User: Fold Alanine--glyoxylate aminotransferase from Papilio xuthus.
Amino acid sequence: MSIPPPNIVDFEIKETLLCGPGPCNLWPSVREALTKPIISPLCDEYFKALDDIRAGIKYVFQTKSNLVLAISGSGHSGMETVITNLVGPEETLLIATRGIWDERAYNVANRYGIKIIVHRIAHNTTFTLEELERQVELYRPTALFITHGDSSTGTVQKLEGLGDICHKYGTLLLVDTVVSLGGVPFFMDAWGVDAVYSSTQKALSGPAGISPVAFSARAAEKIKNSKHKMPFYFDITLLAEQWNCYGNTRYYHHTMSPPLVWALRECLRQLSIETLEKSWERHAKTTRHFHERVQRLPLEFFVPNPEHRLATVTTLALPKGYNYDDVIKYVEEKHKITIFPGRGPTADKSLRIGIMGVNSTGAVADALADALADALQALVKSSL
Assistant:
């Protein structure tokens, strides 16, 4: 043997309160669901779990579409599935860009030879429907990609009415809801969304690695008539057969992770028990309370307009003279709370603080505000 066995030593992991833009801590029942037995992808229990998940996805996206399922992979797998199944090489994708995830959509589309048009605005605001209509009318793209909640900027985009605008010009509407789903109101059918994806590690309080997606009837028809070949792993036609989206099919496409299947099922079960309305209300109330506490501190909101602020992730600018990494390190070491620095357009410009899922409570909001107040005071004293 030319390569000896490695000495892999176990080590202790200390759990912190995860209050960045994701992941967040798990629901206790989701943690328990991860320990359920590994089962065959061809047994009745497995099929029942998939049916339960599809029912939960219809509920959380608020859609009657049958083309709903979950992709084996992180939120990026949902992004790649939605883009590659609906926009082929030489077709046009208009990307409304205000944060890093729109940039990722550009990178995905670019690798598949898709023609890309970028409409960019300031990172701390959102698009008006009027400016989006001007772009759609001008370019008549195959699809418009837009992020609902953006975890890199802490903004939430108004979508009501955008689907009608897109359809008027023969354009499909593709939406990223990774950090907003479950924490912010979203209505796929009522808003005319044609394809949407999310992930489990944010407001659903599950582990990353499995991503709900849904396609409208209009999108399904586009896929049916497409001339281009989809990536095999993300081929929604094959996946729909595995997930039995249209009945009487239990096609084997790939082996999904049973722990993640159980976890997603439990995330959706918990949300169904609480109900979407109560979850949205809880997230809004908790974040309002946190923002009230923040306003007593020498911090500034990165997003100046309250109507543009996301309920699940808050971006905050530190006063001049403070170092973002120092504040983050102090909060984690002293208070056992994990918060994140800015990413992409907000790097070195903001803290990113997530209060979502199981962590969306008044107690967590107070703990965060207290930790930030302590850090600001302690780091000033140490610098003197």
In short: DSSP finds twelve helices and 15 strands in the chain. The two ends are 59 Å apart (CA to CA). The first helix runs from residue 28 to 33. The chain has a mean pLDDT of 96.
